[in-house]
Structure prediction request, 62 residues.
Amino acid sequence: MIQMAVQNRAAVSDEEYARRLDTCWNCPSLQYESTCRHCGCLVAVRAKLSDSICPYPGQSRW
Ligand code: SF4
Prediction:
C-alpha cells in the first residue's frame, strides 16, 4: 500500500523514513497506532514522501 501511495513521487531515504516514523510512534498526536490526528493521514505514507512535513501545531517534529 505504501509503495502504491508514493508511486511516481519523490521518497525519502530509508534512514530518514525510519527517523520520521520513530518520531511519529512516540508522538502524542498519533492515533490508532497509525494515523496523525492533525492531518488524518497514515503516517507510514506521509513520512515516506520527501515533500511532506509533519503538521504538529506550532513546530514540525520532522
Ligand atoms: S504530528 Fe507529526 S510526529 Fe506527530 S503523528 Fe503527526 S506527523 Fe507524526
